[in-house]
Amino acid sequence: MKKLKFPKPKKVSISKLKKKAWALCSQFIRQKYAVNGIDTCYTCGAKKPWKQMQAGHGIGGRYNNVLFMEEVIRPQCPGCNLWGGGKYSIFAEKLIKQYGAERYSQFIMLTNVPKQFKAYELEAIIDIYKRKLEEL
Hints:
By secondary structure, the chain is mostly helical. The protein has helices spanning 14-33, 64-67, 78-83, 88-99, 101-110, 119-135, and strands at 38-40, 47-49, 54-57, 73-76.
């Protein structure tokens, strides 16, 4: 009798998982800070529907250790986040006012620590943001 062969489930790449996790995180941040569907840009104050905004980081480079750290992510208009290069000086000043210079320094230090995501970590992050979005 021949053994039945079942196809192995395809593994999703780390980059695809990371992209999906970021899309959900970004959506969560933009919806979390929206008031009646309108977000205010953290750096310039522009007001737009949450779908027209982006989730910007107060630390440049999108380092893995701070990529999903909600403390340093806020809604930003495309003008500030893309064309304005993130407006880090304004962003950092506001984060320092909110968390203090010592905590902000800790955020910066995390960018120097190498971090490679494992598939199971990104899958967990995806699940977390799906749940958070449902709770909004």
